[in-house]
Write a structure and sequence with these properties.
By secondary structure, the protein is α/β, with parallel strands linked by helices. 27% of the residues lie in helices and 25% in strands. It contains 16 helices and 27 strands. The strands form seven sheets. Strands 1, 2, 3, 4, 5, 6 and 7 form a seven-stranded mixed sheet that branches. A five-stranded parallel sheet has the order 10-9-8-14-27, with helices on one face. The chain has a five-stranded parallel sheet with strand order 16-25-17-18-21. A hairpin with a 2-residue loop joins strand 4 and strand 5. The radius of gyration is 26 Å and the shape is globular.
Length: 628
């Protein structure tokens, strides 16, 4: 079970997931050089690059990459994610490969004015930016390169390459979309609806190649990607309807990211969609997404037993499904299972606090079970919320608006940015006037995390200046702020530890005005029948207590559902690896045929393709699990 652990020496701002690594801060060059002819300079660099990788001598990479440069790659260099720093690390990977470079060539992508080579900036650094097409030994990819002039020649500051499709196994979209009808004499009386129902219910002995646990954004996006690759999947979810994992959350929940950042693959939100999506509206959209993309999904379904056979590379899974009020059992034999239950695991509920079972108030729960505050004006009710991230603030505001006297318990520190300031930070890529989504995503993910951290340190200074008034009010109210890891703000803190921040949608002003009280820096020693006792001797009365204390590692949920044998083989999820990429998520877990899928909507949109391509490569024999 979870617990509220005592603070450790590392500050809240810099805390990492256990076993993960703090992200380095990239050093950016000081250059203002601009190319006279961007296309010519980019072409010259590409020609030189192609010559080097086609030879067995990779020493020439030092002439093409700065010493402080980064090559971020997703499935082109290897069947994994890498972020290689400097030409020596790149050469090391090439030399370790049996076939040298899996990338056969790069070429300029001049298919649009946005993609054409141009002068640009990365923070204060002037760069030559060019979109790329990539040819690999197994398919085609794309990328973005940013070159800077080191005084004599143009060299890489950042290079991003990613696999888009496997040769011979391209997505059934666009020109490859299905016909939808067979003209001429019909050999079957089944129409589209008949065939659709048979596929959805796995009739006539059909088996899913991939079983996906969870019907949130993670499960739906990877199921959609697999479908377009011709891989049959089945989503199972314990909720009554698709989207209930959002509908059943607390009453006032609205997404804190803007609509332009949150589109799903293949089916973007309509032009009339609100900037910030209400939870129930998102649930309805998920339900429609399943129907429109013809995804196979079973609700009110749980996994009651599972086992993996290493010899056959196949799972045996027993499903319990409530259908028309009756429970049915079905055994399926997928080759792959994707745990798509979010990037977190079990709720971190402090069940071992002394006295927690003795509380006599109206409610004591984890935020994941909080349905919304009941109306209480004039009843002199009190609520305590333990935890000061997004959920904690939203729940505190809900209680306040329903007439409760509210106290938030803040044990460490929190990064706070207003929703408006956060929206402005994404304006150049995700807004009404930003580039098309595909180009925006390529630019966004092309920045290595270490470089993004450097840029965000400067950006956070500006954001804090913009939000100076509300941040000052919070500090005066006793609320402890931080600036994220090494001052790098929200995004890096999210990737490094999965929480510790609040995107302010109104609660900060209530705290600054004294309408919501904050108790900061003290531990709970016990739960009393009528409240909480703290280590400074103070006792706070409460009718309702909500622990917005986050979640454990995704691996904990894996252990609960799939057992010790599976959980002991997989690695911990989230936080950075040595190269600055997220651990285990969307990539090899340590257990063949078992994958983790999670993250916010933007991460799911992008990485669902990467995970689907890995599975497709295994299904078709393009690669083996040992190659990943």
């Amino acid at each position: 079970m979870g617990s509220i652990q005592n603070p450790v020496e590392v500050s809240s701002a810099d805390r990492c997931e256990p076993g993960s690594f703090p992200l380095i801060i990239a050093k950016l060059p000081d250059t203002t050089s601009k190319p006279a002819d961007p296309e010519q300079s980019a072409t010259q660099w590409i020609d030189s690059f192609n010559q080097v990788i086609s030879s067995s001598d990779y020493s020439g990479l030092s002439d093409l990459f700065l010493e402080e440069s980064f090559w971020r790659d997703q499935l082109c260099l290897a069947w994994d994610f890498h972020c290689l720093k400097g030409p020596q690390e790149i050469s090391k990977l090439f030399n370790a490969s049996k076939s040298g470079s899996r990338i056969k060539s790069l070429a300029l992508d001049t298919s649009s004015s946005i993609r054409a080579p141009k002068t640009s900036t990365l923070g204060d650094v002037h760069t030559l930016q060019a979109f790329l097409t990539v040819e690999t030994d197994v398919g085609n990819g794309a990328g973005v390169v940013r070159l800077v002039n080191d005084g004599s020649t143009w060299k890489v500051l950042t290079l991003f390459t990613f696999l888009k499709e496997l040769a011979g196994y391209e997505e059934s979209t666009g020109k490859r979309r299905p016909n939808g009808v067979e003209h001429g004499e019909h050999t079957s009386n089944l129409n589209w609806l008949d065939r659709r129902k048979a596929e959805e219910n796995l009739e006539d002995g059909q088996e899913p190649t991939v079983l996906i646990l969870g019907a949130g954004q993670a499960g739906l996006t990877v199921a959609a990607r697999l479908k377009m690759l011709g891989v049959r999947s089945l989503i199972v979810d314990r909720e009554e309807r698709i989207g209930d994992n959002w509908r059943t959350r607390y009453h006032q929940l609205v997404l804190h990211d803007a609509v332009w950042f949150d589109h799903l693959p293949y089916l973007p939100f309509p032009e009339s969609w609100p900037i910030f999506t209400p939870k129930d509206k998102l649930g309805d959209w998920f339900e429609s997404y399943v129907k429109l993309l013809e995804l196979n999904a079973w609700t009110q379904t749980t996994i009651s037993n599972s086992a993996y056979d290493d010899a056959s590379g196949q799972w045996t899974v027993k499903l319990e499904r409530i259908r028309d009020g009756k429970t049915e059992s079905r055994i399926v034999h997928p080759k792959h299972i994707i745990q798509a239950t979010g990037h977190s695991g079990e709720p971190n509920f402090p069940s071992r606090i002394p006295g927690i079972k003795d509380f006599k108030g109206d409610r004591l729960c984890h935020s994941s079970q909080f349905p919304g505050a009941p109306e209480s004006k004039g009843k002199n009710k009190k609520a305590i919320i333990v935890g000061c991230c997004n959920s904690g603030h939203d729940i505190a505001q809900d209680y306040h608006e329903k007439g409760y006297a509210v106290t938030m318990i803040q044990r460490s520190s929190t990064f706070v940015v207003t929703a408006e300031t956060n929206l402005a930070a994404l304006d150049s890529l995700y807004s009404p006037h930003s580039p098309p989504l595909e180009e925006a995503d390529m630019l966004f993910f092309s920045v290595p995390n270490a470089v993004q951290k450097r840029l965000n340190i400067d950006a956070t200074v500006g954001q804090n200046k913009t939000d100076e008034k509300i941040l000052s009010g919070l500090e005066k109210a006793g609320f402890k702020l931080d600036k994220g890891p090494d001052g790098s703000g929200l995004w890096i803190k999210y990737l490094q530890r999965g929480g510790g921040y609040y995107i302010d949608v109104g609660c900060s002003q209530l705290i600054a005005d004294g309408k919501i009280r904050v108790k900061q820096g003290h531990e709970i020693t016990s739960v009393l029948p009528n409240g909480l006792q703290f280590d400074d001797g103070e006792m706070l009365e409460a009718d309702e207590i909500v622990f917005a204390t986050g979640y454990l590692n995704m691996r904990t949920q894996c252990r609960k559902i799939f057992g010790d044998e599976v959980a002991d083989r997989v690695k911990d999820v989230w936080g950075f690896d040595r190269e600055g990429e997220l651990r285990t998520m969307w990539r090899k877990t340590g257990h063949p045929g078992f994958w983790f899928m999670g993250g916010n909507l933007a991460l799911c949109r992008w990485y669902s393709r990467m995970l689907a391509l890995q599975i497709k490569g295994l299904v078709e024999g393009v690669t083996g699990y040992g190659d990943l």
